[in-house]
């Protein structure tokens, strides 16, 4: 068995939860040595799971090779293979899992299945130095407010229907915006929103700590289609309402848990307006505001590798016969013994 | 004196005409643009006292409202002596814990029976008074509805609050909550609401069959 803590131990992380196929090499000390990604671009509409999985299978070899070419580490130097085991789209997850199993067997190293949401939280903590944050995790597939308590990342609030990233994507497509490679719809909406001036009233739906975006999405699309408002104004209003909702529930969790940090992670974390709102509440509650760097915000292999290292170092690994994917793996189900209890 | 800085409002302990009162101030939120912020604050300030009054009619103890100032988004209400249920639920005997949970369930049942959805059922919004009553204090996110869906969401929130804050006893507590609930609304209705809660849980993202 490989040394668990030595500085020259490395983990290969494979991410394939949704539209991205990513591979990364991360040292056991938490240094990201490479982080390569290839995104599936649908010709029209959203992600078709089987089409995305086919894309992943096609690019897997190239992405994996590149993850090693950009470092001095050879596949034989790898001590651990981590993969995204869920939650996510079944066909996509299975493609990554298959590659991970094959590599772990071939290299004869342990395999560890990682919860995708844990990956986003842990990479955010690693990159920002946060130790015990209230985390707002926002992406195309997830909208979760969580904090660590009694061995697990507990969910304090989440969306009751669609994720915020999904809301922005569907809205952008419905109002006819075009996606460009490397520029997510969220960034396109953000750019337009900056030129918006007039606030259009849209439904604001917060239920306790939970949120709902489907009504907001419909209303925003209708507001634009009515012809009464400019696209910029609707983008601006949609962002203001959606992000105010997110900030309100995050503040509720912060007030409730009195944690010392606020961490913003996931693909939507790249949005400057959302960042500025969270910075305000963090300051008001004497908490440090941490935001994941943009290169680690969207789905990536590095976060899987790092979460895999943490789990492995606390004695967790996934035998191949238990490495089936879990498309509905909830964040709260993950026992996280590597996180130190800093409160209570 | 500031006694609680919530996400939604701040509570100040004040003396008002020789009474110990709580002043609930919905201060402007700097993160929200004023147009949106003003609308949300004044809506909630008008709405809350109204619902608090309706809750009393339903037989649920709530603080007495002394004054409402919509322009400044202030509500002056009775200071309820006691402790937050959040602070005591894990500390009391298991008998008392079940009594409290049952009582909370009964109160939620009464609210729902009268078409009141609390909207923020957590144990920090409930005060246990020295004479053993539970007073529901925060109706800032409440709404009126006779439908099953919001009732289910309301109880789902209660369940989640128990699991996140009182995970050791969450299961037994929620069971007792539902028993108390049944006392207020009847077995038939409770069955429907329970089925709804289960549906909501499954609807939630990435929930395995439990």
- The CATH architecture category of the largest domain in chain B equals Orthogonal Bundle
Strand order of the largest sheet of chain B: 1-2-3-5-4
The overall number of domains of chain A is: 2
Stated plainly, the CATH topology of the largest domain in chain B is called Transferase(Phosphotransferase), domain 1
How far apart the termini of chain B lie comes to 46 Å
CATH topology of the largest domain in chain A: Nucleotidyltransferase, domain 5
**CATH H-tier superfamily of the largest domain in chain A:** ATPase, nucleotide binding domain
Strand order in the largest sheet of chain A: 3-2-1-4-5
Largest sheet of chain B: 5 strands, antiparallel
Structural class of chain A: alpha/beta
Overall pLDDT score of chain B:
92
> What kind of assembly state do the chains in view correspond to?
heterodimer
Low-confidence stretches of chain B: none
> On the 0-100 scale, what is the average pLDDT of chain A?
94
**Biggest beta-sheet profile of chain A:** 5 strands, mixed
How many domains would you count in the coordinates of chain B? 2
Share of helix of chain A, binned: 40-55%
Return residue spans of chain A where pLDDT drops below 50 for at least 5 consecutive residues: none
Question: How many distinct helices of chain A?
Answer: 9
Quick tags:
heterodimer, A: 344 residues, alpha/beta, Nucleotidyltransferase, domain 5, 2 domains, 5-stranded mixed β-sheet, 9 helices, 12 strands, 19% strand, globular, B: 210 residues, alpha+beta, Phosphorylase Kinase, domain 1, Transferase(Phosphotransferase), domain 1, 5-stranded antiparallel β-sheet, 3-stranded antiparallel β-sheet
Task: Describe this structure as you would to a colleague.
The complex is a heterodimer of chains A (344) and B (210). Chain A is built from nine helices and twelve strands. By secondary structure, chain A is an alpha/beta fold. Chain A has two domains: 10-115 and 299-333, 2-Layer Sandwich (Nucleotidyltransferase, domain 5); 122-296, 2-Layer Sandwich (Nucleotidyltransferase, domain 5), CATH 3.30.420.40. The longest helix of chain A is centred in the C-terminal third of the chain and has 27 residues, at 231-257. Chain A is globular and about 60 Å long. The two termini of chain A are 36 Å apart. Chain B is an alpha+beta fold and 210 residues long. Chain B has two domains: 2-78, Phosphorylase Kinase, domain 1 (2-Layer Sandwich), CATH 3.30.200; 83-203, Orthogonal Bundle (Transferase(Phosphotransferase), domain 1). Helices cover 47% and strands 19% of the residues of chain B. The longest helix of chain B is centred in the first third of the chain and has 24 residues, at 34-57. Chain B is globular and about 45 Å long.
């Amino acid at each position: 068995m490989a040394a668990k803590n030595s500085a020259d131990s490395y983990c290969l992380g494979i991410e394939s939860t949704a539209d991205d196929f990513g591979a990364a090499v991360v040292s056991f000390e938490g240094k990201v040595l490479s982080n390569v990604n290839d995104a599936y671009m649908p010709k029209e509409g959203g992600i078709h799971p089987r089409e995305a999985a086919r894309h992943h299978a096609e690019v897997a070899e190239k992405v994996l090779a590149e993850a090693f070419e950009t470092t001095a580490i050879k596949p034989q130097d790898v001590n651990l293979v981590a993969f995204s085991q869920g939650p996510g789209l079944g066909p996509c997850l299975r493609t990554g899992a298959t590659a991970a199993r094959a590599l772990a067997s071939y290299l004869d190293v342990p395999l560890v299945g990682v919860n995708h949401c844990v990956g986003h939280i842990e990479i955010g903590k690693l990159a920002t130095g946060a130790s015990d944050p209230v985390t707002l995790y926002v992406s195309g597939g997830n909208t979760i407010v969580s904090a660590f308590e009694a061995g697990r990342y507990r969910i304090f609030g989440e969306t009751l229907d669609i994720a915020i990233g999904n809301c922005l994507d569907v809205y952008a497509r419905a109002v006819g915006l075009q996606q460009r490679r490397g520029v997510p719809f969220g960034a396109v909406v953000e750019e337009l929103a900056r030129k918006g001036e007039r606030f259009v009233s849209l439904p604001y739906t917060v239920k306790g700590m939970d949120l709902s975006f489907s009504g907001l999405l419909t209303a925003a699309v209708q507001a634009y289609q009515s012809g009464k408002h400019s696209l910029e104004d609707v983008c601006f209003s949609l962002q203001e309402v959606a992000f105010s909702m997110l900030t309100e529930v995050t503040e509720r969790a912060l007030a409730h848990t009195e944690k010392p940090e606020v961490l913003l992670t996931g693909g939507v974390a790249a949005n400057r307006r959302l960042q500025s709102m969270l910075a305000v509440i963090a300051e008001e509650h004497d908490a440090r505001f941490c935001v994941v760097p943009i290169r680690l915000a969207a789905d990536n292999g590095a976060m899987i590798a790092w979460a895999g290292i943490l789990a492995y170092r606390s004695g967790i690994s996934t035998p191949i016969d238990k490495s089936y994917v879990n498309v509905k793996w909830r964040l709260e189900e993950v026992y996280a013994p590597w996180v130190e209890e800093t409160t209570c | 004196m500031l006694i609680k800085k919530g996400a939604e409002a701040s509570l100040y302990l004040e003396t008002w005409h020789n009474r110990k009162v709580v002043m609930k101030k919905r201060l402007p939120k700097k993160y929200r643009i004023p147009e949106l912020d003003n609308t949300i604050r004044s809506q909630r300030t008008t709405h809350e006292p109204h619902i608090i009054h309706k809750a009393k009619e339903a037989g649920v103890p709530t603080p007495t409202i002394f004054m409402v100032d919509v322009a400044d988004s202030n509500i002056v209400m009775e200071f309820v002596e006691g402790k937050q249920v959040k602070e005591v639920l894990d500390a009391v005997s298991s008998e008392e814990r079940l009594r409290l949970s049952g009582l909370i369930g009964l109160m939620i049942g009464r609210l729902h029976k009268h078409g009141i959805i609390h909207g923020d059922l957590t144990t920090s919004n409930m005060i246990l008074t020295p004479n053993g009553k539970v007073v529901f204090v925060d109706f800032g996110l409440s709404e009126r509805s006779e439908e099953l869906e919001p009732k289910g969401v309301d109880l789902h929130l209660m369940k989640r609050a128990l699991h996140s804050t009182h995970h050791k006893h969450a299961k037994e507590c929620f069971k007792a909550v539902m028993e108390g609930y049944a006392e207020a609304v009847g077995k038939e209705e409770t069955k429907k609401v329970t089925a709804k809660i289960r549906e909501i849980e499954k609807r939630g993202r990435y929930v395995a069959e439990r």
